[in-house]
Amino acid sequence: MVMERFAAYIAEHQARLRAELAEIVRLPSVSAQNRGITETATFVEQRLRRLGAETRLLSADGGNPLVYATIGNGSRTLLIYDHYDVQPAEPLELWHTPPFDLTERDGKLYGRGVADNKGNLMLRIQAVEAWLATEGALPIRIVFVVEGEEEVSSKTLPAVCRTYADLLRADGCLWETGGVDLSERPVVTCGAKGIQYVELVARGASYDLHSSYATFVPNPAWRLTWALNTLKGPDGRIRIPGFYDRVRPPSAADLAALATIPAGDDEALLADFGLTAFLDNVRGTERLRRHLFEPTCTICGLVSGYTGEGSKTVLPSEARAKIDFRLVPDMDPAEVLQQLRRHLDAEGFNDIEIIDLGGEHPARSPLDATIVQAAVASARDVYGCEPILYPTMAGTGPMYPLCTALGTPVASGAGCGYHGSRVHSPNENIRLADYERAMRWMGSLIKHFAS
Amino acid sequence: MVMERFAAYIAEHQARLRAELAEIVRLPSVSAQNRGITETATFVEQRLRRLGAETRLLSADGGNPLVYATIGNGSRTLLIYDHYDVQPAEPLELWHTPPFDLTERDGKLYGRGVADNKGNLMLRIQAVEAWLATEGALPIRIVFVVEGEEEVSSKTLPAVCRTYADLLRADGCLWETGGVDLSERPVVTCGAKGIQYVELVARGASYDLHSSYATFVPNPAWRLTWALNTLKGPDGRIRIPGFYDRVRPPSAADLAALATIPAGDDEALLADFGLTAFLDNVRGTERLRRHLFEPTCTICGLVSGYTGEGSKTVLPSEARAKIDFRLVPDMDPAEVLQQLRRHLDAEGFNDIEIIDLGGEHPARSPLDATIVQAAVASARDVYGCEPILYPTMAGTGPMYPLCTALGTPVASGAGCGYHGSRVHSPNENIRLADYERAMRWMGSLIKHFAS
């Protein structure tokens, strides 16, 4: 199974491949700040053309262009989902070297986006190059989908998926993320949680009043507090009727996979978070079970009245709470939104406005899907150990519109991330050895997905 | 009872008296910004010396100097409490003329502090001048106490009162505020509510986490929500054990006074506040009864996690609530603080920190006290109608350390405020006619207090 010429090609062209990574990092494609988008989409499209791919730019609703490319032929089609946009580099003063100037130090490459997600994007393209140079024609058809709005919630991706569904059909999808965990074992995930994000707004007088009026003027901060209290109590149970109805229990395969995942060191995690205990004192595999398979209702933000230093006696005119619901299969974000409205009305809070800030469906792939098995088998080949298979991740991504809605199973893998990558933070970095190893992982994945 | 020469003196010296008011307004004595304090204290001290008073500056704990002055002799001593500090002038762009440049327009004088409290301070000093010039020696001893920290919660006044108690003893105290209400009738108040201001802090992880961790990491925003919910429920009843135990019911005299107070137009007030109903649909005199005689527990501010535009999926590391308790006689702020701690502990919230941001005792004077009756009788003389007698105001001031603790009854009156004064707001102003009428009120009050 070892692809010796493939690996030799990578080693031989090391300097050029890295220089190419530096080129794309130099383009400051910060979608939140609308910087460098066109240049980076063009760079990615031209790089894919140089590979021999047919390319086009797709978009919807005026969103940033998505670079679409197909290359190769075969009975199976592999969709590769990556993104060329990155998080803002701020706070700049915490970077040891300029964020858009890829810098090598101690066997690592530092730069904004190098881990999330330009490293994975480039190593996957470069792996195809290495394949073509050493193995000949691709045994599968590969479709690259490289979007430019991942860091701003993939705003227009669902519309692109609806419009261009026929272009996106595939037998499996390789997801953007990937790498090794703390124990240096490679990780494969097969799903993502969904989400429904809302803002609750309680309103009182039309302007902030002197707090002495609290004797007879309604206080929206109290209204919001009471309304929130009906959503979840100190027992942690979400009280919205019907909320748990669609929760699909973990399958036997899910639980078998769970049992093989190293739960990590509870004490080390507690120390890192600065906590003395987790909720309900859960630990180890039980903590992980909740993390992967349970939905949540989280207050992400609260604001009302005076929030500065010291005291100010004010009766607020408005109070706001931002809440995210993380959803597991088979929950539906639109249904959660309806349940929330019905619940607040039933509890006497029809005065509280719900602003819908967006939802995504949960997504899951069967653990025996071809793409999952290819990711696992190729990781085993290249890393010489059993990869860690997560039935899902606890986070959310646009897997549903791109994959699940079209019937495409999905897995992560063939990525260069590691526990110290500082994704979204200053001094984001990857390790050089991981970059080349993940390229070999990608090569092996092509082989396994074809067979 | 008419003091014709007194009134004539005021009319004759109108231009100079107003110029003097302009002089003190020009000094930007913003205590919150530590501007112009020494200059203004010096101005006040020199003005009182020119009157013939003996003066000294008092202070404690490094606070802004309090100008202390005594003048006159008589069997009764009248304490006059005013302050020379003012609120910040910001937002400057909303002023039609420069805030520290006293400007006459349409029979009004505009300037920061002209209503709160430099107008009252100057007209009271000028009334004493007019008395001395027209009536001869004062029939009472007057003690002026002009502090420089009223707009920053009279931070060091309690310590000054403890240290210099012997200098502050009096038979009655004239409080800083005063003027006419919407119906143009003069107002006299005989007390103030107390307050206990706290900040509640709930803490979770030592830094904000990705919200997916909500499956097993405690969320301080939920902890705070649940804790707040135990303080007060949708029925408005404060649930802290013992909170109502010391509440003194309104006396027969209080209720008789309440019955004579015009409650105001409920519909107009609702429209101004942008509300469709008051709490529990209270209206009229019942609304006023609550306002004057009931304690409150008010969320003045809430903050946690992400509060900007749109959505950010964060699990907050901290949540804070600012709360004021307005207290009626005979509640004790320190006791409320203890009750709150005991209550939170008993409800399982000993993880929530309480920061004490200061307390003041409620204060009340008997409605038949000499100072109250002098304020009422002099208002009747000068305004030709029955003044409105409030047993207390719904707000809070340092009446307790300055008066109640020393056994001094207190009343407001002899002030130049009106419903359009815009106290603490841009374009603060007084009406010229009110300024001179309030000076006559002050002259008449001296006469009535002496007799």
**Main sheet of chain A?**
6 strands, mixed
Give the CATH class of the largest domain in chain A.
Alpha Beta
- Output the CATH topology of the largest domain in chain A: Aminopeptidase
> pLDDT average of chain A, as an integer?
96
CATH H-level name of the largest domain in chain A... which superfamily? Zn peptidases
Number of helices of chain A: 14
User: Into how many domains do the coordinates of chain A divide?
Assistant: 2
Largest interface: A-B, 72 and 72 residues
Detail the poorly predicted runs of chain A. Answer: none
What descriptive keywords fit this protein?
four-stranded antiparallel beta sheet, alpha+beta, 2 domains, 451 residues, 35% helix, 21% strand, Aminopeptidase, Alpha-Beta Plaits, homodimer, 14 helices, six-stranded mixed beta sheet
Topology of this protein?
The structure is a homodimer of 451-residue chains.
Chain A (H helix, E strand, L loop, with lengths): L3 H9 L1 H13 L10 H14 L3 E5 L7 E6 L5 E7 L19 E3 L2 E3 L3 H21 L6 E7 L9 H7 L1 H4 L3 E4 L3 E2 L5 E4 L1 E2 L1 E10 L5 E2 L9 H12 L20 H9 L5 H8 L10 H10 L2 E10 L8 E2 L2 E10 L5 H14 L6 E8 L2 E2 L5 H14 L4 E3 L8 H4 L7 E3 L16 E3 H19 L1
Parallel strand pairs in A: 3-6, 3-7, 7-19, 9-18
Antiparallel strand pairs in A: 1-2, 2-6, 4-5, 5-20, 8-9, 10-17, 11-15, 11-16, 12-14, 13-15
Helix pairs in contact in A: 1-4, 1-14, 2-4, 4-14, 12-14
